[in-house]
Amino acid sequence: MTLSKNLKELCETAVKLGAAEAKVIKASDVMVRDWVRLKCQYGCDGYGKRLTCPPYSPAPEQMRRILSGYSSAILLRFEPSWENVHRVVARLEREAFLSGYYSALGLASGPCPFCTKCNLKSWSHPERARPSMEACGIDVYATARGAGFTIEVVKRRKEKPKYFGLLLAV
Question: What's the DSSP call for residue 132?
Answer without folding.
Answer: B
